[in-house]
Amino acid sequence: MAKSQLPDAILVDKYVAGDENALAILINRHQSKIYGYIYSKVSDRDVTEDIFQETFFKVIHTLKSKKYYNEEGKFLSWVLRIASNLIIDKYRNDKKMPLNRDTDELLIFSRITDDSLNIERKLIKNQVEIDIKTIIEKLPHDQKEVIMMRYFLDMSFKEIADFTGVSVNTTLGRMRYAITNMRKVIEKNKIYLPS
């Protein structure tokens, strides 16, 4: 069997054993899906390129350092999970997180999006974004992850379940707990979120 037709798991083993060409085959095999996924979430070619490259730096580092990798042949899912985490980190570290998703699921995320905001409203909007980031950071990791993927990456609950390796029902449960916890923090600290 030609090396290019080998399953992902065997190519990963070959790469870990020192066959650099095995990784080139894996990248070539999956690059369009990975690149397309990243671009669908960030809609910016330069940012997509950066995250794509950083994703494979992490893949190489993890495999070369022989850190725990046991994806049972699900190499693509593993790489997409790495990319997803990098996208979340990018949004988390950006000063301007995209908080303009309108949904009935959670009015907390209903934001002012008018470009002609006056100075006072812009200041309020910036403070609200800071407050929401602070609240999200206080959530348990699994709840924070669902919020970030759902509201900032616009992922479906099915996509989130696939990436986190849990059922859709568990994902929905985590979202409910996250919303409840956020509302409690908002009420307790009397945080005002204008709609």
From TrEMBL:
RNA polymerase sigma factor 70 region 4 type domain boundaries: 132-170
One example GO MF annotation: DNA binding
Pfam families: Sigma70_r2, Sigma70_r4_2
Keyword Transcription found: yes
RNA polymerase sigma-70 region domain ranges (all copies): 26-95
KW Membrane (keyword) present: no
Keyword set, alphabetical order: DNA-binding, Sigma factor, Transcription, Transcription regulation
GO biological process per UniProt: DNA-templated transcription initiation
Top-level taxonomic group: Bacteria
InterPro entries: RNA_pol_sigma-70-like, RNA_pol_sigma-70_dom, RNA_pol_sigma70_r2, RNA_pol_sigma70_r4_t2, RNA_pol_sigma_r2, RNA_pol_sigma_r3/r4-like, WH-like_DNA-bd_sf
Assigned protein family: Belongs to the sigma-70 factor family. ECF subfamily.
Protein name: Sigma-70 family RNA polymerase sigma factor
